[in-house]
Amino acid sequence: MTPALASIGITPSLLLPLLLGVPFVGAILVWMLPRSANDVEASLARTVTIAMLAATALLALALWNVVPSSSAMVDYPWIDDFGARFRLSANGISLPLVLLTAVLMLLSVLATPRSSITHRAASWYALILLLTAGILGIFLAADLLLFYLCWELMLVPLYFLIGVWGSERGASAGKTFFVYTMLGSLLMLVAVITIASAAGGTTYEMLRDMASNRPMGLMAQLLCFGAFASAFLVKSALIPFHTWLPDAQSEGPPLAAVALGIKVGTYGLLVLAYPLFPAAALHPTVRLVLASLGVVGVLYGSLVALVQPDFRRVMSYASIAHLGFVVLGISAFTPESVSGALVVMVNAGITTGGMFLLLGMLRQRLDDDQFASLGGLARQMPMFGAIAVLFALANAGLPGTNGFIGEFLVLLGAFPTFPVLTLLATLGVILAAAYLLWAVQRVLFGPTNAANAGVVRDLTRMEVGVMSVFVVAIIGLGLYPAPLLNRMQESVAGIVNRVNASSTLVPIGVTDGGQP
Amino acid sequence: MNAFASASLDLGTLLLPELIVSVGGMIVLLFGVLAPEGAATTRRAHLLAMVVALLAAGAAAMLANQPAPLSASAGPLAYDGFRWASVAVLLLGVLGTLVMAMEYNEGAALTPSEPPALVLFSAAGMLLLVGARDLMLIFLGIEVMSLSIYVLTGLDRSRAGSAEGALKYFLLGAFSTGFLLYGMALLYGATGTTNLATMADVITARSLATDPLLIGGLALLFVGFSFKIAAVPFHMWTPDVYEGAPTPYTSFMAAGVKTAAFAAFARLLMDGLGPAYASWHYASWLLAAVTMVVGNILALTQQNLKRMLAYSSIAHAGYLLVAVTSHSAEGTAAIVFYALAYTLATVGAYSVLCLVSGGIEKRTRLSDLAGLSRTRPALAVAMAVFMLSLMGFPVAGGMGFFAKWYVLRAALASNAPQLKLAVILVLASLISAGYYLKVVATMFMTLPTEVEPPTRVVAARWTGGVVTIAALVLLVLGVYPGPAVHWARTSTLPTSPARGSTGQTPMQAFAPTDSQPAFP
Q1: Inter-chain CB proximity B373 and A170 less than 8 Å
Q2: Is A404 on the interface with B (CB under 8 A)?
Q3: Whole-prediction pTM
Q4: Do the interacting molecules here have an ipTM over 0.85?
Q5: Which of A9, A28, A226, B413 is surrounded by the fewest CB atoms within 10 Å?
Q6: Separation in Å, CA of A158 to nearest CA in chain B
Q7: Quick count: other Cβ atoms within 10 Å of Cβ A464?
C-alpha cells in the first residue's frame, strides 16, 4: 500500500492534511454539484461521496501502516497573533479511531440506500463529508484551537442530519442535542482561552510543556479540568448528561446514530483533559467521582435498556453503558485500564454502529419497529436474524467477539484501584446479556406479527456486503486483538507515565506558576 | 482651545474622509434636485453615494498608511489605527446599507432621492465620532449622526410604525443627549478640559479618580451612551425603532450607529478616563452582564425577525462592553475585530430580510422564512451562516467565533481577568442559540407556507451580491482569520497607563505570573 501511494506522490507527511482535506473539499464539491433533476443529482452526489469516503478510508489505512509506533506530524503557520498553528499529528491512540471513523462513515453511506434520501440529496451527502472531516479533525488535531473548531464543526452537520432527514420529532431532538452539547463546549472555551493565554499559544506541545514545567495551581487546574470534562462528558453522554442521546439516536437517521457512537468525548478526556491538568485529573476525589459516574452509567444504562420500547433506544442505552466502562477505565488510569477503555471505544463504535445500521435497514422495511409489533422475523429474514444475534452477543461482551477483550481489560486494570466499583461494574456485563438477548428474542423469535407476514424481504446483497465487514471486524478483533493492542501500547504507556509524573508538580498554595 | 489652532493647518488632512463624505452628501442632494424626478434618478443618487463612500474609504486607507502629523498627537482629532479601522468598518456598513436601500426603496415605492444623502450625512457624523478626542467633537458627531437617522427612520410615511419609530427615537435621543451634555459639563468642571488626552493627564496628576464631580459626570455619560448603544436598561426604544424603520436603515442603525457610538465610548473611557478605571469598572461590568443576559432572554420570544435582531443587537452591545471592561489594548483590538464580524453578519442578515420581504414590511415575521431552504436554498444557507456567526459558532458561523474568542481573550488575559464576566458571556451566548437556531430550524426544517406574491417584483441582484460577499468573507475569515486578527492587533487604542485595582477575581489568585500573552 505505502509504495503504491508513494508512487503517485503521496508522501507520509501529506497523508495527514489529505485525510482532513479530502472529505472537506469533497463536501464543498458535492454541495456545488449542479442541481438538476433529483435522480441524477442524487446518484452523482452519492458516487462522488462514496469515492471521497473510500479515498479517506484508504488514506487512513495507509496512515495506519506508515506511522511508526510513536507519532507523525505536520505543521503550518495559521494564526500567529493567537499563537495557533495548523498542526496535525497521529499516534497510537488516535490511529485506531481515525481508521474506525473513516470506515464507519463509508459503510454508513453504503448502507443507506439512495431511495431513502428523498429530498436535497446533494446537501445530505455534503453534510456527511463535512461531518467526517470534523470527526477526523478532532482525532488528528495537535493544536487546541484547531481541535475546538473541529469539535464544534461536528455539531452543525449532525444538527441538520438529525433535524432535516430525521423523523418528525427530529427537529426538536436536533436542537436539544445542539444546545446541550454547546453548553459544555462553551464552558470549555473559557478554559481553553485561559490556558492558551497562560501558555502563550495553543499547540499541544506548548500546553503540555506548560503542564510539566510550570503547572497551574491546583484550584485553577480543577476549574479548567471541570470545564473540559463538562464538554467531553456531555458529548459522550455520561450519566447524568445523557438525556439528549437516546432522542438524537432514535429520531435521527441511522447514519447520525453511528456518528454519535464514535467516542470523541472520551478521546478528548484522555488526550487533553488528563495531560493538561494532571494534578486535577489524578486528584483522589475527582477520580472517585469519575469512576462512580462510570459505574452508575454502566448499571443505570443497562437497567433502563431493559424497559425500552424499541431496539434503537435499547442500543442507545447500551452505548451509555459501554461509555461507563470507558470512563471507569480512564479514571483508574493504569496502562491496562486505559488500553481497555480505548479498545471499548473502538469496539463500541463497531458493534453499536453496526447494530444501528442494521436496525436502519429494518426500519426501511417496516414503518413501525416497536417491540410490540415485531416478532418472528428470524423466519422471514434469516440473514438479518443471524447478523443481529452476532451483534447482540458482541455487544454483550461474549468471549471470542471484540466486545469481550476491552471490558475485560478495563475490569482487570481498574480492580486494584477501585475494587468495589469494579465488582459492581461486572454486574453490567450480566445485565447487558439480559437486555440484548431479550431484545433479540422479541424481534426475531416468537409469533410473527400478522401485519408483517410476507411483506418483509431479507437483506439485499449490498446490505449483506456492508454487514460482512462488521462481522469480520467483530470476529477478527475478538480472536486476534494483538494488532490493535500493539499499536496503542506505546502511546498509552507514554500518556500514563507523563500524567503520573507531572501530577505531583503542583505549586500548592502558591499564587504564581511556581517556575523552577 | 490652543490645540484647535495648532491643528488647523492639518485639519484638512485630518478630516479628509469626513470632508469627502459631507461634500459628497451635498453633491448627491444637489443631483437629486437637479435631475428629473423618478426611479432612475434615485438609483443614480444611490450609486453616486456609493462612489463617495468608496472615495472616503480610499482617503482613510491613504491616511492610515502615513505617519501621524506632529500636531495630531494632542489635538482634538485622533490619528491612530483604532480610528482608521473603525472608519473602515463603518464605511463597509454604509456601502451595504446603500446597496440594500437602492433596491429596497424601489420595491417599497420610496422614491425620493434624498435618503442616500442623509445616509452620507449620518456617516459623516459617525466618522467624526470615531475620530473625536474631544468632548465637543464627540457631541457634535453624535448629533450629526443621529439627526439624519431620525429622518431615515420615519422615511416610510405610508406606515404608522415608521412614524412611531421616528418619534420615539427622536424623543428618547433628545432625552439621552441631555444626559450626555450634562455629563460632559460635569467632566469639564472636574478636570477643566474637554480634550481626552489632557483629561487623562489631569486625572492622574491631581488624583481625581474618585472626585464626586467626575463620578457624577461618568454616571451621566454612561446613561447617555447606553441609550446610543442600546444597553439594558436603556434599550426600550430599540425594538420599536428597529421594527418601524425601513429595513435597510434598521441595518444601518444596528451596524453603523452601534459601531460608531461604541468606538467613541471606548475611546472616552479608555483614553480620557483610563486613570479612573477603578471608578467606572464596576459600572461597565454590571452593564455588560445585564445587557448580555436580558437582551438574549428577551429575544427568545420574538416572532418578528426585526425585533428579534433588535434584541440580538442589544445582546451584542453587552458582548462589546465586556471588551471595554477589560480596559486593555487587547480589548480595543477585540472591539475592532468584533465590529467587523458583527457588521458583516448584521448587514448580511438584514439584506436577506430585504430579499425575503421584497419591500413589504409586514413580511418580516419568523414564519415568513418557513421552508426558505426549499424555495431559495442559497439564501437560506447564507442566512444560516449569518445566524451562526452572530451566535459565535465556529467554522459554519465563520468569523463570529473568532470575534467571541477575541473578546473572551481580552477579558481573560487582561491585567484584571474577568472570569465571571467571561462565564456570563458564554452562558448568554448559549441562550442566544435558542433564537438563532429557531431561525435556522424555520428555514430548513419546516415546509414553506403559501404567500401571495409581492405586488412589485424588483430585481435585487445587488442586494444578493451583498449577501454573497458578506457570507463568503465571514466563512473565509472563519477558517483563516490571521490577516484580520493582525489588522485588529495593529489598530488598537493607546490606553492610559494608570490602572486602578479591581478587586481580585478567582483566576487572578492562582494565575501563573506569566499570564501576559506571549506575543512576539
Answers
A1: no
A2: no
A3: 0.92
A4: yes
A5: A9
A6: 12
A7: 14
